[in-house]
Amino acid sequence: MERFDTVVVGAGMAGVTCARMLADAGRRVVVLEARDRVGGRIHTDRAAGFPVDLGASWIHGIEHSPLWELVQALGIPTREFTVGSFQAGGRPMEHFDGSGRPMDAAASERWISDVEAVDAALVEQIDASAAGDSYLVATERALDASGLDAERIDEIREFFRHRVEEQCGAWIGDLDAHGLDEDGIDGDEVIFPRGYDELPHRISSGLDLRTAHVVNAVTRRGDGWTVRTVDSEFTAADVVVTVPLGVLKSGAISFEPPLPAAAAGAIERLGMGVFNKIFVQFPERFWRADTYVIRALGEAGERWHSWYDVSSISGIPTLLTFAAGPLGRHLQTRPDAEVVADSVRALRALYGDVVGEPIASWVTRWGDDPFSAGSYSHLPIGASHHDHDALAGPFEGGLHFAGEATWGAEPATVGAAYRSGHRAAERILGRSVDLAEFAMQAAERTADRAPRS
Fold first, then answer.
1. Domain boundaries, position 226
2. DSSP 226-289
3. What's the CA angle centered on 27, arms 22 and 33, to 5 degrees?
4. CATH code at position 215
5. 354-413, pLDDT tens digit by residue?
6. Burial category of 140 from C-beta neighbours within 10 Å (exposed 0-12, middle 13-18, buried 19 and up)
7. Does 224 reside within a domain?
8. Is 409 a member of any domain?
9. Spatial separation of the C-alpha atoms in residues 18 and 416, rounded to whole Å
């Protein structure tokens, strides 16, 4: 049995941030990670000779973002890509109408204007919603009041459904009416041409981090805690659990004594969505050179609706599409080749035979991953933003939770994970930790370990 001041469970962004801050303050910390790698739901695959971010991809809004400030301090290169928040417009897009026909500039502008108008009305409907109302109910009320014709309403209805799926990994009828309240984006969005996982790797450099350690029990003993894996035990005064919400909901980790009602209730009420990625590389580009997004509206986009041009990462024509919510769960039961072929058929329905045969592809299955059991958290009907923060604790005896699901201001983001790890460290230390100073220290510590462009 090994003894520490703090045991951190999970080496995602929340876990490595908390552990790094505690270690910098002189505490003896160990990080126990079930996977054979660092990063959690930040997962970069480099097997093809270039990075493919199978998990997190974006920083959603760089203004007033501590995460962005950390990335800048570390000197990690980024690339502006401001459509990761499922926008209707704002960057060059190729729109196709409900029949699969390309829309000209005037039709696209009208569509964007329609979405903006109904979105404004939707805010009012959400504000007036009653307890138990779903996001579907709120959107239908806004659409009914729009005065638009049936075809234009259908296009916006599909857009709202897919927006919820991409932002929450859930069906629109299961999401609380306030489920997207926190979904504001300040400033541009960016992606990582060297791969997102450089960030947690740099932060965790030098930590006592044990991979392939699957925690199955957290037990209070005397004035401390015992954290147990299959063949090891670790004791500490404090424990910080940063595993994804899906793992907590699965019951894979037992807690003794049982979790307080505030934590157990939040875990039960909050939802864990499924959001999977499908990257497809083609021998030649068949879409416009300046296109950020290809988007099919209405009936044409009922199943596959948006493709993002991420060719600049590899230099090979590459589109990224998503299967989220019910579709994402269903496609996890199908072979990769079938999923890719289905998405390519949808592209051929828009572009015809100019769509070549794929030369490479990647398909994720986050809902089947036992160490995440989903992609990120959301608010089902009956849950509230307070549940996110209630889950964070702290709880009696030095039990803490961190991770995106515990940060109510912007859940489901890497920024939330970072901020929650910072909060847990401050609570354990009993003092503030300056994020700007932390960023500069992290940059100095790992400057000689940064990958070269």
1. 2-53+194-269+378-449
2. EEEESS-EEEEEEEEE---HHHHHHT-SEEESPPPHHHHHHHHHSEEE-EEEEEEE-SS--S-T
3. 65
4. 3.50.50.60
5. 999 999 999 999 999 999 999 999 999 999 999 999 999 999 999 999 999 999 999 999
6. middle
7. yes
8. yes
9. 13
